[in-house]
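User: Structure please.
Assistant: Input sequence and predicted structure:
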Amino acid sequence: MTRPSTRMQNANRFKLGLFATNCSGGLAMTKVPECWIASWDNALAANQLAEAAGLEFTLPIARWHGYRGETDAEGSTYETLTWAAGTVAATDEIVVFGTVHVPFLNPVFAAKMMVTADHIGRGRFGLNIVSGWNEGEFNMFGTRLLEHDERYAYSEEWIEISEEWIEIVNRIWAEEAPFDFKGKYFDMTGVQSRPKPHGGGRPLVLSAGSSPAGRAFAMRHADCLFMIIVDIESLAKETASIRAIRDTGEENDAGIYCISHVVCRPTQKEAEEYYHYYVHDMGDWEAAEHLLQIRQGQQQSIPPERFAQIKERFVSGLATYPVVGSPDRVAEAFHDLNKAGIDGMAFGLVNYIDELPYFRDEVLPRMVRLGLREAA
């Protein structure tokens, strides 16, 4: 028995997935009446729509408390491993990721949970591994987040934890005989687990990284590297540099994906007007200010002149890359991203159920004509 291929291995040049359907508000900090309500029924309906449209994957956010303000964006979220197990059980082809905060979950326990979801989905489960950054969430778990004056060692320290965690999980998935492990953070004896992942091998692994250390970790251990796009003008150079590391033969052959939020309407004017409405007229700027304070406490180098731009990105899509326009413009933006070295995108919508059918009917056919995707 061999591990089955999934939609993530298909021939589409630009793969697509939904992002954050498990979180209240999705990616938007907005008070519009149609904002996303992340009930189980809503999330399942959105992901079943995505599967029927031919999208490759769905990716949840692991969040343990919200961002205050009037909306408390992401204040209500489903835990992602049990959410993934339920989602793969209710779908047939879409790949479903679970997101794991390395410092919050023992690797032996996590490996068993993930294999369970992988068997339920017959090989369609994937792992999104994150090291965490939100001090308030670390406090909830009684786990220490490094102080800001250690910022130069921050990435290295947490990547070291991640390295050990993923090494243990990979060995649990691969080795039949019990093994011992002694590292800087873990001292384990007689580690074993059955069953192994569905069909052998291991689930697809993705990791998001912006720092050099984070990206190096993703290139060593992940099949997909997810990145935040800050400057579209330098994107091609950035992706080329990542691929240069991968092409040495010493790193995994990881695809490069970005995360985004999309506003698509029949005309460019309508899309821009709706963006202004949900962001500037109805945005929860108090929540954005709170999130900025958290981020600024960790990254004191953020220049004050960028605060307004950063807060707008928080409100519109939690700092993800905005794609706003008509179906032609949205498809062209995806084409531009692909030419710059991006292999796919996880994206949010203000309301997934309301907006995905239009995206399916208008954007996907244009992507086929541009050679980015095959017809579903």
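Residues 159 and 184 are 12 Å apart (CA to CA).
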